[in-house]
Amino acid sequence: MDPTPSLAVPKLFDLSGKNALVTGGTRGIGAACALALAEAGANVCLVQREPTDGASPNLETRDAILALGVQAKIVHCDLSDIPAVRLLFQSALDAMGGRIHILVNCAGVQRRSPCVDFSEKDWDDVIDVNLKSVWLLCQAAGRHMIPLREGKIINFCSLMSYQGGLTIPAYAAAKGALGQLTKSLSNEWSQHNVQVNGIVPGYIATTMNERLLNDPVRLQQISERIPAGRWGQPKDFAGPIVFLASNASQYVCGELLVVDGGWLGR
């Protein structure tokens, strides 16, 4: 592994000239991360599904990134379509001039049902998007980054990387596995100057958690256990993502950075 550069602290966080590929980057936590990377100087490639039924594409994040004076590209892929995922990294390379320095796997889906009723289709959907697509993108990124001896991979895990949750068996299984996958990749790739780490969000006010936010009983139960006294917001991930994508985290390898307002410590 290359040593941490001898730079002034602000320069350690500077991502000027770097290219980042971000899944899930058009809304919620992913959009906040994409914007933060761009504010630090990175060019960003967003992964987006093709609009359906004549709907207009969501270009809000792309336009906000462009307004910062860096490049913003969009590649289209449905992460539940595994054959398409196998082609995604190369599409991003083509869009970004042949170089990806940072991969952020933030996209995810959720299905809720009692375990005895949980369907095989829901299981496959969650595992494909939340685990298999991440594995394929990480593998493609590793093949690109290792020969160049430079790269940052950041996987969005979950509190379910540590806990089992309720009525979300596939999500818990995928996120538990993703935590271990992150460590496994780090064990092999750190020596090649490719740092692989994870971020573990706590309870964040996003569309994925609308069902919990709209359930008064569960909302109170969860909120009362968060030491910080509030649910997280997407902007709470701006600092952590820039840290893990930059030279500031050069000697941070295989870590799962928990951003949860103190939930796990409780």
Question: Please, could you describe this protein's structure?
Answer:
- It contains nine helices and seven strands; from the N terminus they run αβαβαβαβαβαβαααβ.
- The model has no long low-confidence stretch (mean pLDDT 95).
- It has a seven-stranded parallel beta sheet, sandwiched between helices.
- By secondary structure, it is of the alpha/beta class.
- It has one domain (9-206, 234-259): 3-Layer(aba) Sandwich (Rossmann fold).
- The protein is 41% helix and 14% strand.
- α2 packs across α9 (238-245), α4 runs parallel beside α5 and α5 (120-148) packs parallel to α6.
- The radius of gyration is 18 Å and the shape is globular.
Briefly summarize what is shown.
With 266 residues, the protein is α/β, with parallel strands linked by helices. 41% of the residues lie in helices and 14% in strands. The protein is built from 9 helices and 7 strands, in the order αβαβαβαβαβαβαααβ.
What tags apply to this protein structure?
Rossmann fold; alpha/beta; seven-stranded parallel β-sheet; 266 residues; globular; 41% helix
